[in-house]
Every structure is written in structure tokens, then in C-alpha cells.
């Protein structure tokens, strides 16, 4: 126990990531892409962000590349990027549409993606082109299973 505590403190001092939990939060009312983005649909509008699972694997987010408002996004295509202390990852749109709002708070506080991936860390809001694409996404149960299977491979 003491050696684990020492190792955790040493890793923290050296800014090395130590796995601290065995599972990520998955919200039931959202839809999920296999590239680890979530979408919350409200009428003809969709809020998009990266999942808790994704931010946990990325580590501390230090920069988020945001698209311009008015930009067209296509399901499965990249619209931005998240840079962390570990890596840079594309952010893919889980649904097609037009960007109507970007979370400009991420310019000053990119760590919101880590601290609150489903609330304050959302990335864009989109006017949905076609709701049929939602059928290509996973519900919370399928996404949880997908993450477990993916993590078991590593």
C-alpha cells in the first residue's frame, strides 16, 4: 500500500499519468460514435463532445481546435482536434449538419473537456441535416460494451 501511494505521488510529481479508475461515465440519454464522440439531440439541434472514456485515455487536454460557426460537418469526418499531454486526436462528427455554435470557453479552458466532458466541455452545436444518421450510432449500453471490448484488447 505504501509503495503504491509513493508511486502515485512520484508519478504526479513527474506528471506521469496513473490509471485511477476502471470505468468511464456513460450517460443514457446520449448517442455515441465508435470514435468516442457523443451527441445529445434536442429537436433539430445536436450538442457534440468527446466521451469521458476518450478524455480519460487522452489525459490532460491542453488545446481544442474548434471549427468556425457555419461550417458544414459530415458524419464520421473530422471537424477539429483535441491536443493533450499524450497525443493529438481528431474529433469526428457523429452526425451531419451545420455548426451553429462552438464552445469558445475551450479556448481559455481546454481542461473543461476533462473536468466535464458531458456538460461544460461540449465542443460544438449542430443544426441536424438528417436524423436518420442517429441510427448509425450506439446507445449507452452498446457503447459501454464497445469500450469494455476495446480496453480488453489493450
Can you give me a brief rundown of this structure?
This protein has helices spanning 2-13, 52-58, 105-108, 112-115, 140-153; strands spanning 31-32, 37-42, 45-50, 61-65, 72-73, 78-84, 88-92, 97-102, 124-128. It has 154 residues and is of the alpha+beta class.
Report what the structure shows:
The protein has 154 residues and is α+β, with helices and mostly antiparallel strands. Helix content is 27%, strand content 29%. The protein has five helices and nine strands. The chain has helices at residues 2-13, 52-58, 105-108, 112-115, 140-153, and strands at 31-32, 37-42, 45-50, 61-65, 72-73, 78-84, 88-92, 97-102, 124-128. The strands form two sheets. The chain has a six-stranded antiparallel sheet with strand order 1-2-3-9-8-5. Strands 4-6-7 form a three-stranded antiparallel sheet. The longest helix has 14 residues, at 140-153. It is globular, with a radius of gyration of 16 Å. 32% of the residues are buried.
User: SSE order in H/E notation?
Assistant: HEEEHEEEEEHHEH
Number of helices: 5
> In this structure, how is the largest beta sheet organized?
6 strands, antiparallel
Number of strands: 9
Rg (CA only)? 16 Å
Write the SSE topology.
Layout: H1 2-13, E1 31-32, E2 37-42, E3 45-50, H2 52-58, E4 61-65, E5 72-73, E6 78-84, E7 88-92, E8 97-102, H3 105-108, H4 112-115, E9 124-128, H5 140-153
Antiparallel strand pairs: 1-2, 2-3, 3-9, 4-6, 5-8, 6-7, 8-9
